[in-house]
Amino acid sequence: MNQLGFPIISLVAFFPIFGVLILMLIDKKAEDTLRGTAMVFALIEFFISLPLLFSFQNGIAGMQFVERYNWIKSAGLSYYVGIDGISLWIVMLTTFLTPICVLCSWTYIQKRVKEFMICLLLLETAMLGALVSLDLILFYVFWELMLIPMYLLIGVWGGDNRIYAAVKFFIYTAAGSVFMLLSIFYLYYLNYKTTGVFTFDLLELYKLNIPVSVQFWLCTAFFVSFAIKVPMFPLHTWLPDAHVQAPTAGSVILAGVLLKMGTYGFMRFAIPLFPYATKQFTPVIATLAVIGIIYGALVALIQPDMKKLVAYSSVSHLGYVMLGIFAFNMQGVEGGLYQMLNHGISTGALFLIVGMLYERRHTRMIKDFGGIARVMPIYATFFMIATLSSIAVPGTNGFVGEFMILVGAFRSLPVYAIFATSGAILGALYMLWMYQRVMFQPLDKEENKVLKDLNLREIVTLLPLAVLVFVMGFFPGYFLRKMDASCEYFLKNYQQKVAFYEKGLEDGTSRIETVLEENNLRRTLD
Amino acid sequence: MLEFVVPALNLKAILPQLILALTALTVLLVDVFAGKDGKTSLGGLSLIGVVAALVTLFLSRGDFESAYAGMLAVDGFGFFITLIICLVALLSILVAISYEKVCPEIRSGEFYSLLLFAAFGMSFMGSASNLIMIFVALETMSISIYVLAGFKRDNLKSIESALKYFLLGAFASGFLLFGFALIYGAAGTLDIVKLGSFFTAHPDLLHQPLVMGGVALMTVGFGFKIAMFPFHMWTPDVYEGAPSVVTGFMATGVKAAAFAALVRVFFVAFAALQTDWTTIMWIAALLTMTVGNLIAISQTNIKRMLAYSSIAHAGYLLIGFVVGSEIARSAILFYLLGYAFANIGAFAVISAMGSKGEEYNELSDFQGVGFKYPMLGLTMSIFLFSMAGIPPAAGFMGKFFIFSEAIKAGYVWLAIFGVINSVISLYYYLGVIVRMYFKDPEREISIAAPAGTLVAALSLAAFGVLQMGIFPSYVWDLARASAKMLM
């Protein structure tokens, strides 16, 4: 299945580690060398991830570039990686955002540059590893590994209240995931009982028929773990803290990729593994998603702090993603996936923009600004582009995603969709209002009159994101085509499985014993 | 007339232990004849002995047998325990050599030879297959450690630690011995294998007060040594007062040896009683980890904190014990080794946190250490993450094996309590990392740059932790093969 005949995924996933080793050898006082080296590695990493995109075969639903080796043979653990249409773009987003993060930290991070860059590259490996893992324990290892560098990024380089935010972030996320771990064990055991094979192979576990009563509990554990990461209302409280305290690069990574891990986890793990329980949970999730959309928007509306405003807008945007996925039709799911990328780009850009202003003024309070557009015209342009993308104006990427999600939702969850649409209006309200208060209005503060416009480095940082906003807005086809096959397969699989369980419940064959028996039967037939 | 049979002197079966004992004696002799300069070589000499023991351990692996008229079971299980003990001794000696600067008292033959004698006793505890043999090994170990704990002669805490450990330990030994006596009274034999077959043949005797009482008293005795709730009260005081290197040694070595004996006695001799002690151990496991973790949160001294954390780890290990399958026993072995690396490593860092005569053991002393002493900070973080069970460290893999086995065996609730406890423990482990990296120092502390041997110990322990976490296959297969052979 590996079309390149070369372990490309491992190379992409572990290349940053190589960068970490090189950085360790560099003297910590040579700060510019450190920044440059990290930048070079992040860029090379991006370029070596491009073959994934270009050799990706659109028509195939299954995993591509697969690699597999035994890890602990007797326990059924394997190093099993591959990507499909669902993970491809998030992988690309990760390798795309990391150089931008290095660039935006160039002057922002003044102390402990070496350790900062090491954390950033380590985080990249952990995120990529989690995205490509097809073995549940391998996934879990990377999933937890993501916490450590992120924890350090917030805790060492964060704002005044960083320790509280870092510890809260770590414990919140870890607490969610340990129950997922137990759930994984139970799946493993169930699989052994039905097939006689010890394995954590995700694709094998997909095939497992899980008794409905058990499915409910296992699904809950997975859902909670991913819902914390997304974060879904009411498990979102760690996010504003973490975002506000984190340095800009940390916020960009957090918004761009880490939150996507939650929604990605739903699509890759929770839903295909527990389709029937998912169906039962759909009203709950959709309700929480809609609450998240509206609540996030309302809270964002009244924030005096720009960064906190963007953080709460994340809660709202991620609500859309969840609603799209749980619409369970092509438009919804693809829209959700598309919106994950959009959110990474537009919110990433917004955090960068807020960070750049903070670097100049050391405040993020909206009331401290006003009339900035007059002194910083280039900055104003980029800010406008990111704002428009965030509120989904036609022509930007945000429009495509939000439109698809709402179309999908109207088809299967009409009531929810009506409420969700109000979020779009609120979104325009809080973003444009903030823009107005910060950029327009009279330039009445002395400190603001001398602000310098963006320098070349900052323009280079924002330009790729701004270009992508329009590319993804005008040519969504290129992006969507690569998702098509996998999303179709995801839906087909979900619907078939749900039908199977429903039929089983009707004629009473979904009780534990019968399902187990049937599994055994299937085993002998195979 | 009774025929007297001289038992075959199978020296090969006990070669690693023999080397440990001979090295201990040599160290004592060298100490007498060497001058002041010669004393610096004592650590090196002990080191050579431990390495030789490790090498012979691997060379003689495979000849599994019962030796010395059934006194010793030279089996896979014993092999693995001896492996842990030898590694623990190796690391402790490496740390001790550099610790001489902080605590000059330990530069003496007595220290190194007592450490080796303790290791000798621990190793025999892992392979003893006769109750009396277990007792003798346990006493060899314990008495050496009582002395080691009080090695800082003019430090009140150290003396308190030694005395407390000695008095309570003596009581516990008494319980254990009395338990053995009751069992002997009921079954007429002390041989563990024979006890097993005796109780299988006479299930009616199992619930006699004599046997039940004996098992209960033995549980108390072993429970004391592994720091199981409610016999854990001594741990914080003793761990705090003892010299840091000794604390690391006993937190890992004693636990491994006592767990080995516990597993062997309960699974070989009292397998027939399993349903009875499972319930008790279930509760003990739950309380042990919960009490350990909850109290650890409020500690301000790092040695006391790690003492409570070691109680919690005993609780996790007890989950494996309750599950009791062969894979669970492998998981116990794996966990013990991973825990040993991480814990000795952590105590190595603590022992480095001192200068002449003064030690910095308060948690606040760790503020800012991470960036000031990158080596100590980095390795300490690795060890703490391992103990917290965060991948990719050995502790995660250990918990992975234990909890997955618990789920497999149907102890879902115990596994749930286990992971809840892991989350609780995160709080205090992270607390140390918060101090090391996120906070600025409160008071200036000056510590010597880590000596070569300390760097070696830290690297070795960190390597062990990461190797067992990232490529666990080798050690896990070794543990599986070892646990299969429990005579």
Task: Give structural notes.
Chain A has a domain at 282-474. The model of chain A has no long low-confidence stretch (mean pLDDT 86). Chain A has 22 helices and 2 strands. Helices cover 76% and strands 3% of the residues of chain A. Chain A has helices spanning 8-25, 31-54, 85-104, 113-132, 136-145, 147-157, 162-195, 202-206, 212-229, 238-245, 248-273, 275-301, 306-325, 330-361, 372-375, 377-390, 397-412, 414-439, 446-449, 456-474, 476-506, 512-525; strands spanning 64-72, 77-83. In chain A, strands 1-2 form a two-stranded antiparallel sheet. Chain A is mainly α and 526 residues long. Chain B is globular and about 70 Å long. In chain B, a hairpin with a 2-residue loop joins β3 and β4. Chain B has helices spanning 15-33, 41-59, 76-99, 109-127, 131-149, 156-187, 192-201, 209-226, 234-241, 244-269, 274-297, 302-323, 326-352, 369-372, 374-388, 394-408, 412-438, 452-470, 473-484, and strands at 65-67, 72-74, 354-355, 358-359. Chain B has 19 helices and 4 strands. Helices cover 74% and strands 2% of the residues of chain B. Chain B has a two-stranded antiparallel ribbon. In chain B, strands 3-4 form a two-stranded antiparallel sheet. Chain B has one domain (11-351, 359-484). Chain B is mainly α. In chain B, α8 (209-226) packs antiparallel against α10 (244-269), α13 (326-352) runs antiparallel to α15 and α13 packs across α19. The mean pLDDT of chain B is 88. Chains A and B meet through β1, α5, α6 and α7 of A and α16, α17 and α19 of B.
